[in-house]
Amino acid sequence: MDSITVFAPATVANVACGFDIFGFAVDNPGDQITLTASPEPGVRITDIIGDEGRLPRETGRNTAGIAIQSYLQHINRTDVGVDVVLRKQMPLGSGLGSSAASAVAGVYAINELLGRPLPTIKLLPFAMEGERIACGSAHADNVAPSLLGGFVVIRSYQPLDVVRIETPATLFCTIVHPDIEVNTKDARFILKNEVSLKNTIIQMGNVAGLIAGLMTPDYGLISRSLVDVIIEPVRSILIPEFNEVKQAALENGALGCSISGSGPSMFALSRDALTAEHVGAAMQQAFLSASITSEAYVSEINRQGPKVLASQEVVH
Ligand code: HSE
Predict the structure, then answer these.
(1) What is the domain count for the chain?
(2) What are φ and ψ of residue 10, in 5° steps?
(3) What would the DSSP string read from start to end of 119-171?
(4) Of the residues 12, 15, 132, 139, which should be mutated to test ligand 1's pocket, given the most ligand atoms within 8 Å of the CB?
(5) How far, in Å, from the CA of 110 to the mean position of ligand 1?
(6) How far is the CA of 258 from the centre of ligand 1 (A)?
(7) Quick one: pLDDT at residue 316?
(8) Which of 84, 88, 92, 91 is nearest to 108 (CA)?
(9) Looking at 184, 232, 241, 275, which residue is catalytic?
(10) Within a 10 A sphere around the Cβ of 78, how many other Cβ atoms?
(11) Burial grade of 255 (CB within 10 A; 0-12, 13-18, 19 or more)
(12) Centre of ligand 1 from the C-alpha of residue 224, in Å
């Protein structure tokens, strides 16, 4: 294979109560990457489309470039040459795991291009390296679900222990992205380092309840558990109309609503597609009443993760 194009899905990290430990993938949006084998060793970002020139083109500063490079070093294939074209198909700084999707698409694509020397799960640390560059922390709650698909729990970071959780077949996600930007580094910086015992107990109850609710499945339990008493109260100040948008989602039948990743996107879960559509319209309307335009995405939980869109043998 000489050329491959891969799509990797956007993700909702944290999922209310699970800061840095929960995340799930959605069908859209997502990022696309095309890798073309080159006789000249090294990884080159030859083009990035859809970022308005804002992302670094140097391989060592680009999330996909870093992920591919660290993978090649790990498998001792620094002799490999590859040209990279990245198509950003989701907003930057949106809380949808944009940097993660690029890193995952990159590392998945290079592994396929080389005939899959590593199983998919082993690609995770290289995608996390991309996150370290983009956000200042190698958190896995975007890269793991983008890479593995489904709803993922990061049980532990050291050692890395990732568990995929079954979710109800008819669980739908609404994401509304207001046209404002929040930088993940900033959104992490404002968090408090200490948490009270009282809030820890509440949060642990919700973490356990959400997993039990998803696996049973029990929509009432899912709904009661989609509560974040630690991160949301701090970060919601970065999102204008947060309370109104959340209330609009809940009043229109959402099981729960919170910040997607580090924001400013907000997500809601619903038990059917129609409710998820209504919820999206109501959330957008709530943003609009403060003159904030937005995009809405409705999707099931994406269980597939990255997918190969095209591959080609070039006849030399
Ligand atoms: N868990 C990370 C955070 C996700 O909330 O900072 C960033 O998308």
Answers:
(1) 2
(2) -70, 165
(3) -GGGGHHHHHHHHHHHHSS---TTHHHHHH-SEEEEEEETTEEEEEE---TT-
(4) 139
(5) 26
(6) 13
(7) 43
(8) 84
(9) 184
(10) 12
(11) buried
(12) 22
Same domain, 153 and 225: no
Which protein residue has the closest C-alpha to ligand 1 atom 1?
A: 20
Say if pTM beats, i.e. exceeds, 0.90.
yes
CA dihedral 8, 179, 151, 233 (to 10 degrees): 150
Residues of the chain where predicted confidence (pLDDT) is lower than 70: 313-316
Do 225 and 181 lie in one domain? The reply is: yes
pLDDT at 184: 82
What is the rounded distance in angstroms from the CA atom of residue 228 to the CA atom of residue 207? 9
**Is 310 a known ligand-binding residue?**
no
Question: In terms of Cα–Cα distance, which of 14, 55, 48, 16 is closest to 33?
Answer: 48
CB atoms < 10 A from the CB of 274, how many?
A: 12
8 Å CB contact between 311 and 9: no
Q: What is the CATH number of the domain that holds 216?
A: 3.30.70.890
One domain, residues 154 and 209:
no
Give the pLDDT confidence score for residue 314 in this predicted structure: 54
Query: Is 184 a residue of the active site?
Result: yes
* 100 annotated binding-site participant: yes
Strands 256-259 and 307-312: unpaired
CATH number at residue 155: 3.30.230.10
Atom of ligand 1 nearest to the CA of 141: 1
Contact 311, 261 (CB under 8 A): no
The domain of 255 spans 172-300
- pLDDT tens track for 87-109: 999 888 899 999 999 999 999 99
| Residue 235 near ligand 1, beta carbon < 6 Å | no
In a domain, 51, yes or no: yes
Indicate the residue type of 234.
V
Report which protein residue has its CA nearest ligand 1's atom 8.
261
> Is residue 131 among the annotated active site residues?
yes
